[in-house]
Design brief:
It contains five helices and two strands. It is mostly helical. Among the domains are: about 40 residues; about 40 residues, no CATH class. Strands 1-2 form a two-stranded antiparallel sheet. A hairpin with a 6-residue loop joins strand 1 and strand 2. Helix 4 runs antiparallel to helix 5. About 0% of the residues are buried. It comes from Toxostoma redivivum.
């Protein structure tokens, strides 16, 4: 069965029934849809079939204010998108850089790849004690960065 949004739903394990409770407001009373609507619209008499021109003006002003806030948010997301595009233009993906360095006979390794090699060197039975200690020191450096 459908329940209002924001409701608290639980399953009573003793009776096996589902229970629904509307969320409480600051004053401890449950909030109904009509109460939320009245709070959102302000002190507008929503029960009558007619509105005064003053009530309509106030409601319209609130709608315009919320619309401006939404536009500001969308403008900020557009601004963020432009910043990301500028970053993409300045920097290239790591895969492309790796391909270019391979053409120059240079192998670029990520920190993860280096750490895997150091761990395998440490776990190797063929490594000497000095090599294992050096691997641990190097691992400490890379782990500290992470």
């Amino acid at each position: 069965q459908a329940v209002p949004a924001g409701s608290h739903v639980r399953l009573n394990l003793q009776t096996g029934e589902r229970e629904v409770k509307l969320p409480d407001t600051e004053n401890g009373q449950s909030d109904t849809r009509e109460e939320r609507r009245r709070r959102r619209l302000g002190k507008v008499d929503v029960d009558t079939n007619s509105f005064t021109s003053e009530e309509l003006k106030k409601a319209l002003a609130k709608m315009k204010a919320s619309e401006k806030a939404e536009r500001k948010v969308s403008f900020q997301s557009l601004k963020q998108y432009r910043v990301e595009e500028e970053v993409r233009k300045k920097f290239r993906p790591i895969e492309q850089l790796k391909e270019e360095f391979e053409k120059l006979n240079m192998k670029i390794e990520t920190d993860y790849e280096i750490m895997v090699k150091l761990i395998s060197k440490f776990n190797s039975s063929a490594s000497t004690l000095d090599e294992k200690v050096a691997a641990l020191y190097d691992l400490e450096y890379y782990v500290h960065q992470v």
